[in-house]
Amino acid sequence: MQITIDMIKELREKTGCGIMDCRSALEKSNGDMDLAMQELREKGLKTAEKRADRVASEGRLEVYIHSEGRLVVMVELNCETDFVSKNDSFLAFTKAVASLVAEHNPADVAALSALPLSQDNFGPSVEDVRKGLIGKIGENLAVRRFKRYAGGGQLASYLHGTRIGVIVEFTGDEDAQAKLLADIIKSEFRVIGFREEEADLEDVFLKLTTGAVH
Q1: What confidence tens digit (pLDDT) does each residue in 16-33 have?
Q2: Which of 125, 120, 124 is nearest to 110 (CA)?
């Protein structure tokens, strides 16, 4: 069967894979779109296995706020380069993972990875999407850690860029919240004892939520 430009374009739009990969998959499947997509998924899984040992030290934090500020989730996802941390599929994945943590309250990263998720024609679990995106994007990706805080008072969050974040509980109106976050930006990292560029998400979160900083 002749492989046309329109067929390649359609497959590329569905999978986000490169032109040559799409052409090759269509040729192997004799133009069958479903078989071609399966071919690309299998290739992506092989790529994920090859990249599993590569260091993923870049990435970003994602914050999800629900229930009028009384439930806040912060997740950290890693990739290999800063460029990929701005990739649309990577961003969508971080948002989806944060939402799942809020909804299901998984015990750990392993439990989170087993939760149902479909994205970019990958799935049916978070882990399957992660592996699929590794093949699509071409970098190792990792769900490193997360924090879910709920059941207390009003919560607010602050992100310093995309790599450092804090969650605080406060009382008062929106003006009080704005002042609190401004104070965090100006001084809380110094009070905690970290330089901003060295502050660790988990340490900052624990110190704030256990009352070490007021």
Answers
A1: 677 888 888 888 888 888
A2: 125
d(CA 138, CA 17): 10
* Placement of tokens 């109106």 in the chain: 173
The domain limits of the chain are 5-51
One-letter amino acid for residue 134 of the chain: I
If DSSP codes are grouped into helix, strand and coil, which group holds residue 106? coil
> pTM higher than 0.90 for the full model?
no
Q: What are phi and psi of 156, to 5 degrees?
A: -140, 155
How many angstroms separate the CA atoms of 202 and 123, rounded? Answer: 29
pLDDT tens digits, one per residue of 107-154: 999 999 999 999 988 889 999 999 888 888 888 899 999 989 886 767
Instruction: Give the mean pLDDT of 90-98.
Output: 95
What number of other Cβ atoms are within 10 A of residue 79's Cβ? 25
Contact 134, 141 (CB under 8 A): yes
Pick from 143, 76, 71: nearest CA to 102: 71
150's CB contacts (< 8 A; 6+ apart) are 67, 70, 71, 72
Look-up: residue for tokens 């299998």? Answer: 42
DSSP secondary-structure letter at 114?
T
Q: What would the CATH number be for the domain defined by 5-51?
A: 1.10.8.10
Which residue has 């046309």 as its token pair?
A: 4
With residue 158 as reference, give the H or E element that holds it. strand 154-160
Say how far apart CA 69 and CA 73 lie, in whole Å. 10
